[in-house]
Write a structure and sequence with these properties.
Helix content: under 10%
Largest sheet: 5 strands, antiparallel
Order of helices and strands: EEEEEEEEEEHEEE
Strand content: over 45%
Number of strands: 13
Structural class: mainly beta
Radius of gyration: 27 Å
Distance between the termini: 47 Å
Number of helices: 1
């Protein structure tokens, strides 16, 4: 498989044990499966090479009298496009007023992170999970369909038709039990003064049951 950045050799399933040559009778077919996770956008080329020996049997004989090695190669080209588009927005929240909720350096940071997930595929998809991996010293809490029940059934999962948009939200709180949490945040500030919050992990299945996943880059916000 040739992707925009590299070329990768793929294994066949089921794999040949290599101990004996496989023989195919006339009108008989052989089926193999290759699996590859699409992680890049752009042009992809699947190159399939096949080598085989064509045997002939002389009239009146049962054993093969001659063999000819043949090889052919076929290319399958396709363009990989994003299945889900992600747009995010982070907002400052007032600091928690609970007694003792202050760090050594002052008030703790709190943010609300909203994300709009748009189905860019040609068919419907089912969202199986959306989680936020927070950057230390933050902790995150989901505000989505999995809040009340952790064992949500398949029939309750969000189903998105093409171009449908589903909004999710998370609450991020700076953990008070992490020493020098404010110092960690200041050290992680980007050049334009943005705070790094975390990464979104999204999992879905297509209408044919194919599993897909997406991990965003580091999500940031600028204090107002």
């Amino acid at each position: 498989m040739q992707t925009p950045s590299q070329t990768t050799a793929l294994n066949l399933t089921p794999a040949d044990d290599g101990s004996t040559e496989s023989r195919t009778k006339p009108r008989e077919s052989v089926q193999k499966i290759v699996r590859f996770d699409l992680k890049e956008e752009g042009n992809h080329i699947l190159a399939v090479s096949l080598s085989y020996t064509e045997t002939t049997t002389s009239k009146g004989e049962t054993a093969a009298s001659s063999g000819r090695v043949r090889t052919f190669r076929k290319l399958y080209q396709f363009i990989a496009q994003p299945c889900i588009s992600v747009r995010t927005k982070a907002s400052d929240l007032p600091p928690s007023r609970t007694e003792g909720e202050k760090s050594q350096t002052g008030k703790l940071f709190r943010f609300a992170l909203e994300a709009q997930l748009e189905n860019m595929a040609d068919g419907s998809i089912t969202l199986e999970g959306v989680t936020l991996e927070p950057r230390s010293p933050f902790k995150s809490a989901s505000l989505n369909w999995d809040v009340e029940r952790g064992d949500v059934g398949q029939e309750c999962l969000p189903n998105l038709a093409p171009r449908d948009v589903w909004q999710v939200a998370f609450l991020l709180d700076q953990q008070k039990d992490i020493e020098e949490g404010g110092e960690v945040i200041r050290n992680d500030l980007t050049k334009d003064g943005r705070i790094i919050l975390g990464q979104l992990n999204i999992r879905w299945r297509s209408s044919m049951g194919d599993l897909g996943s997406l991990t965003t880059g580091w999500l940031t916000t600028k204090r107002r």
